[in-house]
Design goal:
By secondary structure, the chain is of the alpha/beta class. It has one domain: Metallo-beta-lactamase, Chain A. The chain contains 9 helices and 15 strands. It has an 8-stranded mixed sheet with strand order 6-5-4-3-2-1-14-15, with no helix packed on it. The protein has a 7-stranded mixed sheet with strand order 7-8-9-10-11-12-13. β11, α8 and β12 form a beta-alpha-beta unit. The longest helix has 15 residues.
């Protein structure tokens, strides 16, 4: 009874929301913090509830609003959260891209962290998910996606062509309203003033036929700001992906800043000329190679921001400047 009362109270808080700015700047939705833990706790919605039930009070009874629809405000601040999902030797990714009412979730972390990821999304005011991206078939990246699909209405799922039948079935069973979309090099989309370009995988027979190197790589640009999300591509794909791509302010280090992701590191930094780099995953550098990344970044004046040890990295862009913070 106490558990249900607490859950109902939490939902009422989510429904109440918090006051926002007229121009949408620096508004993180409902706010909230990182999740931490090992993924053992349950999320805070009503028993058997979903995010669509949580947000249903916004609409007339019986009215259906597609998950793809959102209140557009191109002047809203952009937030990119690298959620802490790594533990032990398990690396993993879960990323929230949020601009106003538009929400894109990229990967869901390992299954052991699924509750943490859903709690985090609820705390940041996610009501439904316009785009849910599975970068590639790696359990440390897709493990939590099914549970995310159970708790939130999803407009569409993006995926690469590479993947097994079981992986494909899992993505279909999420039940995205607009289905599953195969994306690849050359695809470009506009959301709430942002440009989202797919730089990888290469389409058709030109792809690598390898899960990591055929993973989805996204370049997100907003009012002159750029961030590159690289998943687990190694030097083979990096050469093709980076050729002609141009500079970018912030990069997510491929392969969690280790080993295979660093073989082309000088080329990677020389082409992109980033000001900052995110290392996502866990603190376990079992390849003993991250120190090379730290050293080369320091020589170029590139700031390094890890999201492990129970902390998350948050990138904020207000239309003029960007900042990166590490949150407990």
């Amino acid at each position: 009874m106490i558990k249900k009362a607490f859950a109902l109270f939490a939902v009422l808080l989510l429904l109440a929301g918090c006051p926002g700015n007229d121009d949408g700047l620096l508004d993180e939705g409902t706010g909230g913090g990182s999740t931490g833990g090992t993924g053992s706790q349950e999320h805070i919605s009503i028993e058997n509830g979903t995010s669509s039930q949580i947000s249903a009070g916004e609409y007339e009874e019986g009215e259906f609003i597609p998950a793809s629809e959102y209140a557009e405000n191109v002047n809203s601040s952009l937030f990119i959260y690298f959620i802490s999902v790594g533990y032990g030797d398990t690396q993993g990714d879960a990323i929230l891209v949020k601009k106003g009412d538009f929400d894109m979730v990229i990967d869901g972390g390992p299954v052991a962290k699924k509750y943490d990821v859903v709690n985090f999304l609820l705390a940041k005011g996610v009501d439904d998910i316009e785009v849910l991206v599975s970068t590639h078939e790696d359990a440390e990246h897709y493990g939590g996606l099914s549970y995310i699909g159970e708790q939130f209405r999803v407009a569409e799922v993006w995926r690469p062509a590479e993947g097994s039948e079981s992986y494909s079935s899992m993505l279909e069973e999420i039940g995205a309203e607009d289905g599953v979309k195969y994306v690849g090099l050359g695809d470009s989309y506009e959301f709430n003033g942002m440009s989202v370009s797919v730089l990888n995988p290469i389409k058709g027979e030109g792809r690598f036929f390898d899960s990591d190197n055929d993973g989805v790589v996204l370049r997100i640009e907003d009012r002159g700001f750029c961030i590159l999300l690289d998943a687990d591509i190694d030097s083979s794909a990096q050469t093709k992906v980076l050729t002609g791509t141009g500079t970018c302010d912030v990069v997510q280090m491929p392969w969690h800043g280790m080993s295979e992701g660093l073989y082309n590191l000088d080329f990677f930094f020389d082409v992109l000329e980033p000001q900052a780099a995110i290392i996502s995953g866990s603190a376990s550098d079992w390849t003993k190679t991250r120190q090379t990344l730290f050293n080369k970044a320091a020589l170029r004046g590139i700031g390094i921001y890890p999201n492990y040890n129970g902390t998350g990295a948050k990138v904020t862009f207000d239309g003029y400047d960007f900042a990166i913070t590490i949150e407990e």
